[in-house]
Fold this sequence. Notes:
Layout: H1 5-11, E1 20-22, E2 28-30, E3 36-44, H2 50-56, E4 63-68, E5 76-78, H3 80-88, E6 93-100, H4 103-106, E7 112-118, E8 130-131, E9 135-137, E10 140-142, E11 147-151, E12 154-158
Parallel strand pairs: 3-4, 4-6, 5-6, 6-7
Antiparallel strand pairs: 1-12, 2-7, 3-8, 3-11, 9-10, 11-12
Amino acid sequence: xxxxxxxxxxxxxxxxxxxxxxxxxxxxxxxxxxxxxxxxxxxxxxxxxxxxxxxxxxxxxxxxxxxxxxxxxxxxxxxxxxxxxxxxxxxxxxxxxxxxxxxxxxxxxxxxxxxxxxxxxxxxxxxxxxxxxxxxxxxxxxxxxxxxxxxxxxxxxxxxxxxx
Length: 164
């Protein structure tokens, strides 16, 4: 990955706020991959990560999973086993509007992870949630098929793939 989000903002300044959106600075960085980008796949769920395993079991080459967990700070939606599964299936990264766990182990896995924080408790497993919806959090919308760019300086969403 050879990009910097500040440079993307400068280069595509005329698109800021429209085709290119800056997510509010709310996420902590995890995973061994500090910069990642890809086409967005979305999940909306609350304190139930069953669908995360289903999605991470699919081919994720060139894709980033965006999870709207409602901002819950009461349990984790991604742990080391799910991060390993995502890595095995080629996912570029995951953005969790919620918590993760096993952060020390996740930091050794070659995948990009952004989350609000960590929590040691696992989620429930009821299979509840929805896929491929437009999500809204962090002051922006995340639509399936759009593109996400993340590095140490922030997270961007673009309606089109940006030339890197």
